[in-house]
Backbone:
């Protein structure tokens, strides 16, 4: 198989290839997932009826189970049978689908990204899934479902070098001066960042990674809930055990609530840590001549690569807990392909380096956007009127609402004033922090935007990569000479509100001039 | 790190082309008329429905619907007039400007918005014409960049001949398709 994968010398007819039989496992899993996704409602109804009626006792139970099993296996085999691919003349061709046949012809140069995935069921084989990302819609994503790891790497190499040759021919990427056809190979690959287990545990604690696990468990929520209550009961935390009589003091109830909340938080945090460790285990970020490659995973291995020149923006993001622990998440963001909404983990347009220290973040940012001044640039603050606006539109109405409820409904008297005051002060400090954080800065090459609440989010993008600039203002802002500015990048947009209109115009002029006069590629 | 074309020359700000000096052109006045027409048509249909429910005697109408129709007779024309007034003034504000290197569009009555799209970053151009556009000889020019579907730059209400000219201007621009 390895020989027939080589496109070189494939001048004449290249025969269609069938996948190795291990691909059947992939198809079975994929079909089951697709089935569950399409009939999620039906599945939950079935799960519900399973818990209400005694399905296991029914005489149809075993035959039905066998039928489902056989149908699943058959669907995998059929999908496998109808899947063919071939590689010739710098094109990947895939023919698949049973009822809806699909014929896909993908020239190497149209492939934006090559991702090698090793699902957990491939872990003990030598196979991997090669995901070819195009600039088109999500449906155009092509997968070669089972290739031996060596073949997958070799093919990736060919695709990437073909793409590079094309770009070199067109000389559209002045940022990349590497001429060697072997650029991007494993030979000159250096690891520029590693995440240790401790970093991943921190990442799990500071970021809610619960969904990484909960997403997969969705059909079993009911059972998990039952098991959880059973467990609570067993460790003696259930209300029936704690308060056997009707007469309970208020402090007992509050103690109960507090301890239950602590238990819930502890469970959530451990699930989140587990999610983080499972997905980012053994995380490495490597650098080749022109590319970043991210590898991670405890069960399923993921490998995502991104060209340096395609990085549109570097984002350093922080939650309040990150802020306290002096960590941040670093993102290299490239153009979105199509308009698919992907989870951050699977998204090829965002490359995440989880929970790095500030120093590491700035070193990585320097690597992607040379000579940037993310660490020491001073930012231009936004107008104070931002505070007034949110006071009038947000803080005042909410505080009045709190007063109305506590005074008129709950009859709290003087306390209602206190409550509304506390609400107002709380909300206003949030608005104040938001205002305080927001800032924008320019230097000769880059634009920097800072925002956040407690934690700081910093964004940096090259001026010449902007796709569109939008200045907007309401009539009130117009009267005060203020405006919002939005820079549209291929990776998304960045907005800075409440700048002086003059400043916003100046920034827009500057960016347009930079784009139009430099005529550099954004890819 | 790769060699980069780093330079740090001063940029004299008065040499920069200025968005404040754009020469804006209005879109076709027909666009406003079409929009007003649509507004009036929708209000008329709603009013006729409310009137029928209120005054017909053939079938008995459930009381809540009957009451609602009474309110509708007051509220629909009120909102309709507001919409028409808004449309009248807002559509006047839609203006565009072409420069050698970029297109700009200004719009909005309460929320003003000025968007500028460099030609260099345009991926492709489309002329869109719905049935009403075809009836009134108008076209909508859509310009797509890599900024994504949410940021499609769109000039509405252009006379078809002008829209085609602008499209041609973009297509023959030497930078189009440059990545």
Residues:
């Amino acid at each position: 198989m390895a020989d027939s994968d080589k496109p070189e010398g494939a001048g004449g007819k290249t025969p269609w290839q069938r996948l190795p039989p291990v691909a059947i496992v992939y198809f079975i899993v994929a079909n089951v997932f697709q089935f569950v996704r399409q009939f999620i409602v039906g599945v939950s109804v079935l799960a519900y009826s399973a818990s209400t009626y005694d399905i296991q006792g029914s005489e149809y139970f075993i035959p039905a189970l066998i039928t489902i099993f056989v149908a699943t296996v058959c669907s995998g085999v059929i999908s496998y049978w109808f899947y063919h691919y071939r590689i010739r003349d710098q094109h990947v061709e895939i023919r698949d689908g049973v009822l809806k046949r699909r014929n896909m012809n993908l020239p190497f140069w149209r492939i934006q990204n090559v991702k090698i995935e090793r699902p957990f069921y491939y872990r003990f084989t030598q196979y991997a899934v090669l995901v070819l990302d195009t600039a088109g819609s999500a449906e155009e994503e092509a997968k070669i479902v089972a290739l031996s790891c060596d073949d997958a790497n070799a093919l990736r190499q060919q695709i990437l070098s073909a793409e590079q040759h094309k770009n070199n021919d067109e000389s559209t990427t002045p940022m990349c001066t590497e001429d060697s056809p072997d650029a991007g190979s494993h030979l000159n690959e250096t690891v520029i960042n590693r995440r240790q287990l401790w970093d991943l545990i921190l990442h799990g604690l500071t970021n809610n990674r619960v969904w990484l696990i909960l997403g997969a468990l969705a059909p079993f929520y009911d059972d998990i809930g039952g098991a959880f209550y059973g467990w609570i009961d067993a460790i003696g935390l259930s209300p029936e055990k704690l308060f056997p009589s009707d007469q309970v003091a208020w402090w007992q109830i509050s103690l109960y609530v507090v301890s239950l909340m602590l238990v819930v938080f502890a469970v959530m945090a451990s699930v989140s840590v587990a999610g983080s460790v499972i997905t980012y285990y053994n995380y490495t970020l490597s650098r080749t001549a022109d590319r970043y490659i991210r590898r991670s995973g405890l069960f399923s291995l993921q490998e995502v690569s991104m060209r340096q020149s395609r990085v549109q923006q570097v984002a350093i993001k922080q939650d309040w807990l990150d802020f306290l622990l002096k960590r941040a998440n670093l993102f290299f963001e490239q153009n979105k392909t199509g308009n698919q909404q992907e989870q951050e983990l699977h998204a090829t347009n965002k490359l995440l380096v989880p929970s790095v220290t500030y120093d590491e973040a700035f070193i990585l940012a320097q690597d992607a956007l040379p000579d940037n001044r993310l660490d020491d640039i001073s930012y231009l603050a936004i107008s104070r009127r931002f505070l007034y606006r949110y006071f009038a539109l947000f803080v005042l109405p909410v505080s009045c609402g709190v007063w109305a409820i506590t005074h008129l409904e709950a009859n709290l008297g003087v306390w209602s004033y206190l409550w509304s005051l506390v609400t107002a002060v709380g909300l206003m400090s949030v608005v104040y922090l938001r205002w305080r954080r927001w800032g924008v800065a320019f230097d000769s090459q880059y634009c920097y935007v800072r925002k956040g609440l407690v934690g700081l989010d910093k964004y940096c993008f090259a001026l010449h990569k902007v796709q569109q600039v939008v200045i907007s203002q309401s009539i009130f802002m117009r009267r005060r000479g203020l405006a919002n500015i939005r820079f549209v990048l291929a990776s998304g947009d960045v907005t800075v509100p409440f700048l002086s209109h003059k400043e916003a115009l100046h920034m827009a002029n500057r960016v347009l001039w930079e784009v139009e006069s430099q005529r550099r590629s954004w890819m | 790190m790769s060699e980069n074309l780093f330079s740090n020359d001063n940029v004299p700000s008065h040499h920069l082309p200025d968005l404040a000096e754009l020469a804006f052109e209005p879109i076709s006045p027909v666009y406003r008329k079409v929009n007003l027409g649509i507004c009036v048509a929708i209000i008329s249909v709603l009013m006729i429905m409310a009137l029928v429910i209120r005054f017909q005697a053939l079938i008995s109408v459930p009381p809540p619907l009957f009451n609602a129709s009474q309110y509708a007779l007051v509220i629909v024309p009120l909102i309709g007039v507001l919409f028409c007034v808004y449309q009248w003034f807002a559509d006047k504000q839609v203006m565009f400007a072409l420069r050698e290197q970029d297109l700009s569009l200004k719009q909005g009555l309460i929320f003003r918005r000025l968007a500028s799209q460099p030609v260099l970053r345009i991926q492709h151009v489309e002329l869109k014409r719905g049935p009403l556009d075809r009836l009134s000889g108008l076209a909508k020019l859509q310009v797509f960049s890599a900024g994504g579907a949410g940021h499609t730059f769109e000039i509405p209400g252009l006379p078809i001949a002008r829209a085609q000219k602008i499209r041609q201007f973009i297509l023959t621009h030497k930078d189009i398709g440059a990545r």
